[in-house]
Amino acid sequence: MSLSHFKNIGSVLKEFQITYAEANFIEPCPFEIPDYFREYLEFMMNEGVVDNSEYAICENLIYPVLKQVWKQYSRSFILWSHQSLNYTEDLSGFPEYILAKRSELGKLIFDQPYFLLVEAKQDKFAEGWAQCLAEIIAAQRLNQIPHIIVFGIVSNGKNWEFGKLEGSNFTKNKEFYSIQSLDHLFSAIHYIFRQCEVQLNSLVLV
Q1: Per-residue pLDDT at 206 exceeds 70
Q2: What are the structural domain ranges in the chain?
Q3: Are the C-beta atoms of residues 48 and 103 closer than 8 Å to each other?
Q4: What is the 3-state secondary structure (H, E, C) of the chain?
Q5: Which of 2, 3, 12, 182 fits a 20 to 30 Å CA distance from 126?
Q6: CA 134, CA 5: separation in Å to the nearest integer?
Q7: pLDDT tens per residue, range 115-156
């Protein structure tokens, strides 16, 4: 089965024996949003058709936000778009975005470990989390480093939800974030990126 086979998070939890919990694990991590980005987003929300498809959601809302934070971490990570993720023939797919270590061989190498996976859905958050968790599990197993926390985001562009997988324990952040509260949203994404960087640095020191 491909990652898109999973339609609800319960089926993923049962198949891979993952425990589920809900808790607010995201801590405030302020991010300075440039004025030009605020102007871009306001223009797109007022004048553009930003959510008529999952591709439009990715292009107009999700990627611009992720990219803005990723710029501060680009020396350490590559933000991949629609890159194939294959653990086995039965567990493979194309997450919308993957944050992975920047390879010493250059930016064209899709290198381990994988820290963050993002799934875009048109308001189908239950289905989105099923696919996102399956993607996170695939990434965790490909990493072959058990203690790495792999984060996940499911978004319809306007609302953003966050989760993380530690070992066999999945935690979904109880609070969700909105693009209407831009500073709050960027603070959450910045926190996730910073945690990814902390983990990467700890691997370098080992």
Answers
A1: no
A2: 3-205
A3: no
A4: CCHHHCCCHHHHHHHHCCEEEECCCCCCCCCCCCHHHHHHHHHHHHHCCCCCCHHHHHHHHHHHHHHHHHHHHCCCEEEEECCCEEEECCEEECCCEEEEEECCCCCCCEEEEEEEEEEECCCCHHHHHHHHHHHHHHHHHHHCCCCCCEEEEEECCCEEEEEEEECCEEEECCCCEECCCHHHHHHHHHHHHHHHHHHHHHHHHC
A5: 182
A6: 10
A7: 999 998 888 898 999 999 999 999 999 998 878 999 999 999
pLDDT tens-digit readout, 76-118: 999 999 998 888 776 777 889 999 999 999 999 898 899 999 9
Arch. (CATH architecture) of 3-205: Alpha-Beta Complex (3.90)
